[in-house]
Queue: 3 jobs
Job 1
Amino acid sequence: MHPEFDDELEDFDESHAPQGRSTFIRFLAAFLAVCLLLLSLEGYSILIHPEPDAPVALAEVQSFLPNNPNLPFGSHQADEVRQVLDEIRDPIKQVANFVASNACKSGDAVCQSRALFYFVRDRITYVPDPQFHDQLENPLVVLKTGGADCEDMAVLVSAFQMAIGNEARLVFVPGHAYAQVRIPHYKDQWLNLEATCKTCKFNDLPTDTQLQAKEFVEL
């Protein structure tokens, strides 16, 4: 190699290489700092609001239900839904307490809310109603049969959430319904509970549902 070229290469290495290494080290340090921050935030969230465990089987909660309840169908009109939820407050509270206490030993409210949502998502099977059929099936009957359409699954989710002191409301979109919950002192926002979506986690919502026009029914 030509001596003059060697001198130029040495000058390049001395002037650029340290700066390049310094830039890379600063970038790497910043990247690691961001990763550690995200991990610490996630770990803090899990520590404060742990995920539920010890899932409860549907058969276990059925022992809390009345043997021969007189539970006629209603409609999904807001007043009738509220009336039904008021009438079944005690047995629904017993079921909610059982599911929440078994899944969340810490007593954390967010963990309990998740546990009740996952119970409906995982234990109740979606069974569509005939077209234009708009009858409300009592949540206790849903628990007895293990199947319901989207509206009735949303009502059951709402009943459970209200039983542990959360606010709940129904969300109607064209041809579908799901529930939302607001937990005191947590994020101060409505969280989505889409129980018919078996892959949806707490506060997840399918993209097509997000884009649809919504009607909210406060309970």
Job 2
Amino acid sequence: MERKLMSELIRWKDKKGRKPLLLEGARQVGKTYLLKDFGKRYFKNVAYVNFQNPSTELIDLFNGSIEPKRIITMLELYLNMKISPSETLIIFDEAQEIPRALTSLKYFCEDTPEYTIATAGSLLGVFLHKDTSFPVGKVNRGRGQENTKWRLNG
């Protein structure tokens, strides 16, 4: 199972015209573990941001402009690290907790496709924020099925 999941993520990473990845599924099925392990294996750096209990600083980051270059600059300051398009996997965990983080994926897709960005969130949380401008057509979606079997679409 692990090799299949990693193979799908590698295929997504190497895909021409890759979009940000939204990995959805029930809580506690391994979404975060999978993305962190993928980042550790196939990238020089991982810029991990957990929105579960966000700081005021993190909330404010997405209350302003959600232009990707601004977000990248602010994340570099927040995480105290350099984010390189070719060497860094950006992970937004529990992204449903800050709806504008989900909305920003549209602009990452359109304006800065060179960045590799993956988000994880529970299906329930994603659907609770129906007022959010969801980036339809601007993300590849992976959905958990039967516990930890994943399928990447798009």
Job 3
Amino acid sequence: MKWEFEDRSTGARFVVCVNEHCLKAEGQLNGQKENINTFVVNKAKEQQVTIDGITYSMPPCSVLPLVANQHFTFERPQDLVSWHFNREFYCIVDHDAEVSCVGFLFYGITHPFFVMLTSAEMESLSAIERLFMEDITLRDNMQGEMLRTVLKRLIIKVTRIAKQQTPIYQRLAEDKLNLVRQFNLLLEINFRKEHEVSFYAMALNKSPKNLASIFSQCNYPSPSQLIKNRIMLEAKRYARYTVKSAKEVGCLLGFDDAAHFSHYFKSNEGMAFSAFKQLV
């Protein structure tokens, strides 16, 4: 079944699908492309999910956060429960200070982030589903706010569970972990234009050396490596899912000219952009 809330005055959209074939790639619902963020809950047996051309096994009793610019397909979408929302309904960036989720669940360094659930936690998520069911049928001027409250509760619940499963959150000071989260968010917003660590360090009021040291203490890849990884991920997405040329992709990713981008791609991937495109 599928339940949907839409506010045409703002473009806000919130959709929940249960045992339906409505879960599509890159923020699409029934073929309609939008900037949709997604929580996928697998209550059934293990199944395969392909994200940006790489196949993973999604465990039973788990939650997977997905963002709008990811391309994904599931082996058996009809066995899943999926929650979809666009920026107009609930902006995870604007609410990050409240729920501490953007640089952790959605734009974290762990990818993909399968959050495992106990039977009690599964029941807790089912209770949130029931709250949603109560509010989706009440068509009044408070419905949108009530549904946003339910979604926020889901996000906070999954964030709490995920943090308990991440040992680094038990070892390191919250300020250092928040710095990593803030870097992740800045990177997602700016990677198409800003390729140097100095930009992100300045934005975070740190020196590049100090920033690298904190990432090392957190046992994370260096800031420069994360910048490179994000640029290459986006370049590969363009190669797999569009007909854009190396020149066009280089321009979209902030490179001065096609030659610079081509050299960057080949030095990091070991083959030319055109050769990679033919392979996929």
